[in-house]
Structures are given as C-alpha cells and as structure tokens.
Amino acid sequence: MWFAACFNKLLSAGRLARYAAPLFLVLSGELGAPDNQTTTEGLRISIDDPAVASAWQVLRTVNCERCHGKDYEGLAAPSIVDYVRTQGREPFVRAVLDGNAVRGMPAYRGNPLVDANIEGIYRYFAGRADGSIGKEARPAMRGQVQR
Ligand code: HEC
C-alpha cells in the first residue's frame, strides 16, 4: 500500500529529526558545556590531572585553609580563589613563594612540597576560579604527592 510506505517514511523522518537534533548538540559539544569551561590559557582543568591532584594534597598538608578558610574562600586572610581570578598567574606565584611577612602571609619558597607543586597549585586555583573545579571536588586518587 503506497500510503503505508509513505507513512512509514514520514515516521522515520520524524524520528530522525527527533534524534538528530540532540545528537548534533552532543557532537557539537553543546550538551557538554559544563565540561568545556576553559582557563585563561584555554585549557580545561581537572581535579584528576596528576599535577592538580598532587597540588590538592599539598594544600591540605601545608594547611593554607587555616588562614584562608575552608575552600580557600577567605577567613582571616583573603580568598585565594578570587585572587587568582582577578590577578592571574604571576602575582599568585609571587604571593605564595615570597609571602608578605608584614601582613602575615608566610613565604613558601624553600618548602619542597610547595616548590615542586607550584604549577599544579596555580592550576588548582585557576580551575576553582573558572568553575571547572568545584569547591567540593576531591581527586579520585589521593595521597599521590609529586616531589
Ligand atoms: C599563617 C596564615 C597564612 C597561611 C598558612 C597562608 N596564608 Fe596566604 N595569606 C595570609 C595573609 C594574612 C595574606 C594577606 C597578605 C596581604 O594582605 O598582602 C595572605 C595572602 C595570600 C595571597 C595573596 C592574596 C591577596 O589578596 O593579597 C595568596 C595568593 C595566598 N596568600 C596564598 C596562600 C597559599 C597558597 C597558602 C598555602 C600554601 C597560604 N596562602 C597560606 C596568611 C596565610
């Protein structure tokens, strides 16, 4: 029957349209938007990047949160996340390594854990700042510190 064939064609065309649109979105990355957030360098930062996971552990060990607050968003000392968001990499690295003795920020230059992980530490906070790392994010593998 010609109309049955025709109906079938219409039906499959409708199905195609129904599935093609979401498929297109997935392929073009639209639905993956939360995964596509980028840093100023255009890289997406993951808590499970080995350097970032290591940095996360170092921050815990050194205990930056004792002054900068839970989630590093400010307590007695200012928010590290906001600082990285507004100031970027160079001032951040300087602030951590050189410190500010007068205002109570220790200098971490010479601390082997911080020295060896400064790039990962910056990347962790850059990820926090651009939202690609949530404040509750924990590395899947813990206790793996790069030295
Ligand atoms: C003993 C308390 C203390 C600890 C521990 C500490 N900080 Fe700080 N930090 C401060 C204080 C106080 C300031 C503010 C200095 C100023 O006003 O210039 C500061 C400033 C900073 C700044 C610059 C922010 C700004 O607004 O000037 C960064 C970045 C920073 N700390 C990162 C860290 C990191 C990373 C760690 C751990 C490795 C850490 N801090 C550990 C007290 C601390």
UniProtKB/TrEMBL annotation:
Keyword Amino-acid biosynthesis part of the UniProt annotation: no
Keywords: Heme, Iron, Metal-binding, Signal
TM stretches of this protein: none
InterPro entries the UniProt entry points to: Cyt_c-like_dom, Cyt_c-like_dom_sf
Pfam family of the protein (one): Cytochrome_CBB3
Signal peptide segment: 1-20
PROSITE patterns, alphabetized: CYTC
Domain Cytochrome c as annotated: residue spans: 50-129
SUPFAM superfamilies per the UniProt record, alphabetical: Cytochrome c
Protein name, entry field: Cytochrome c
Protein source organism: Variovorax humicola
